[in-house]
């Protein structure tokens, strides 16, 4: 490859280009949520809107994991390659979990309080906590008294909010009977055979043969025209899996609340530890990304427990898109600063 090609590719993938593209993606996502997240009372968001939110989130986290893995593979990264490996794995598992979450909620039409995507979301939290912990522990934190008080205060607020959300969760009745009686499940259940025995009627009366009752079907909620035959049938394996996952709703939500508080404290410590330093810009973005993740998670936990038949896609959930965008920007800034620092030290040695 010629030097012209190298310089052209380098300028195309410069940190300014990456940051501007990420900011533009975040602005588009915010406009999309602002314009289409509000639906008439009693109606659910259309499927195309839910698909659009998934595309915004998936793209943000896909770009972030590529940039984090680039930092992991670079020997020039000052903050440590293992830090970015953990953060990159967190982005990867969130990307996979989000796809499963969308399939569970949008395609199958099932309650997404607990879904197969939670397995990957749990791994996301584990690796993000590990990555941020390594970033904080690698620096000698010499926080002042007011800074320590700020960390403790924010942690206390996070714990109090988590306790309130956990204690205010309404006790849900057994949904199994209701779910088995739903029209979608009735379609998958074997229909009762009609009775073929004649009923005692007058001999002169000619009765039409009885026809088996047809269970109602669940049609698409948006864009359905009168007389449309499009149906959404829930497979039996999905019903069995939903019933198997239902008992894990409480422990999974408790795990998320605990991890959200830990990430909140680590983000605050990062913001104070890297404030004013040479690499403060990248880690400010990482800290703000953790804050956005916390806000979106807390809202989803509240809405899912206190809003009847809640379907994801409300405006506060744009924080998940912001989280992926900010992680990507932080990774790009870290890579650029580390490269310039290494080039500057090489010139001084020369």
The number of strands is 0
Number of helices: 12
What distance separates the N and C termini?
26 Å
Question: What would the average pLDDT be, to the nearest integer?
Answer: 78
Low-confidence stretches: 1-12, 173-229, 345-350
* Sheet with the most strands, sense and barrel status: none
Q: Beta-strand percentage? A: under 5%
The proportion of residues forming helix, as a percent range, comes to: 55-70%
Radius of gyration: 26 Å
Mind sketching the topology for me?
Layout: H1 3-12, H2 15-36, H3 47-73, H4 81-107, H5 117-137, H6 145-167, H7 176-180, H8 183-188, H9 236-245, H10 249-273, H11 280-306, H12 318-349
Helix pairs in contact: 2-3, 2-12, 3-4, 3-12, 4-5, 5-10, 6-10, 10-11, 11-12
Could you describe the 3D structure shown?
This protein is mostly helical and 350 residues long. Helix content is 67%, strand content 0%. It contains 12 helices and no strands. It is globular and about 55 Å long. Residues 1-12, 173-229 and 345-350 have low confidence and may be disordered.
């Amino acid at each position: 490859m010629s030097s012209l090609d190298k310089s052209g590719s380098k300028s195309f993938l410069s940190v300014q280009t990456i940051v501007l593209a990420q900011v533009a993606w975040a602005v588009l996502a915010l406009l999309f949520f602002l314009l289409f997240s509000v639906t008439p009372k009693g109606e659910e968001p259309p499927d195309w809107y839910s698909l659009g939110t998934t595309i915004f989130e998936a793209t943000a986290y896909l770009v972030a994991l590529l940039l984090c893995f680039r930092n992991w593979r670079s020997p020039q990264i000052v903050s440590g390659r293992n830090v970015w490996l953990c953060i990159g794995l967190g982005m990867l598992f969130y990307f996979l979990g989000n796809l499963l979450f969308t399939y569970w909620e949008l395609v199958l039409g099932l309650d997404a309080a607990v879904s197969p995507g939670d397995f990957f979301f749990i791994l996301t939290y584990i690796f993000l906590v590990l990555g941020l912990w390594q970033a904080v522990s690698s620096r000698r934190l010499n926080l002042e008294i007011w800074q320590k008080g700020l960390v403790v205060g924010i942690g206390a607020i996070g714990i109090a909010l988590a306790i309130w959300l956990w204690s205010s969760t309404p006790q849900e009745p057994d949904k199994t009977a209701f779910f088995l009686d739903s029209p979608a499940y009735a379609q998958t259940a074997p229909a009762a055979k009609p009775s073929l025995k004649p009923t005692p009627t007058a001999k002169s009366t000619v009765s039409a043969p009885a026809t088996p009752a047809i269970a109602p079907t669940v049609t698409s909620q948006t864009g359905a025209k009168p007389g449309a035959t499009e149906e959404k049938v829930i497979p039996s394996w999905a019903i069995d899996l939903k019933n198997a996952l239902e008992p894990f709703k409480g422990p999974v939500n408790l795990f998320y609340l605990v991890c959200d508080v830990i990430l909140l404290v680590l983000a605050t410590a990062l913001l104070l530890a890297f404030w004013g330093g040479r690499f403060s810009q990248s880690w400010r973005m990482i800290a703000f990304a953790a804050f956005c993740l916390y806000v979106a998670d807390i809202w989803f936990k509240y809405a899912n427990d206190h809003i009847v038949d809640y379907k994801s896609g409300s405006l506060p959930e744009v924080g998940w898109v912001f989280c992926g965008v900010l992680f990507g920007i932080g990774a790009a800034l870290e890579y650029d600063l580390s490269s310039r620092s290494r080039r500057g030290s090489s010139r001084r040695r020369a």
